[in-house]
Design brief:
Elements lengths: L1 H25 L8 H27 L8 H24 L11 H30 L1
């Protein structure tokens, strides 16, 4: 039992040494927000707001909410989604580095998906409101 504890302790020490060396190699402080991550977070915020407004507008156009966002909210969600996509594509086209380097590449991909989903939801809400307007 004592031999296994000694081996396990040495493995944990080696793993912690390796992870600290990797963190120094990438020059990323643990838990810190780098400039790349901050740029990805801004695009993600636009995408998330677009997703929420687009979803609320879609539920409003379906008659599931009594008072809600409506067409103006869907148009705002569409614009915010476009801004989120532009920001994330600009970030991904630059030298953001690989995954885990603190460059924000994974966050920019998430921001792109959130923005695209917000655009789709707001487009569906606008199409539904235009169809109802024509009836």
């Amino acid at each position: 039992m004592e031999i296994t504890n000694g081996i396990l302790t040495k493995l944990i020490a080696a793993a912690s040494l390796f992870t600290s060396q990797v963190a120094f190699a990438f020059d990323v402080p643990t838990g810190a927000i780098t400039s790349g991550r901050a740029r990805a977070l801004v695009g993600g915020a636009f995408g998330l707001i677009s997703l929420i407004l687009g979803g609320l507008a879609l539920f409003r156009s379906a008659g599931r909410l009594g008072a809600g966002i409506g067409r103006i909210g869907a148009m705002i969600a569409l614009v915010l989604g476009l801004v989120g996509i532009i920001l994330s594509v600009m970030h991904l086209s630059g030298p953001a580095g690989g995954f885990g380097t603190g460059g924000g590449r994974a966050g920019a991909i998430v921001a792109f998906v959130l923005s695209l989903t917000g655009i789709i939801l707001s487009g569906l809400a606008l199409a539904r409101s235009l169809r109802r307007r024509g009836e």
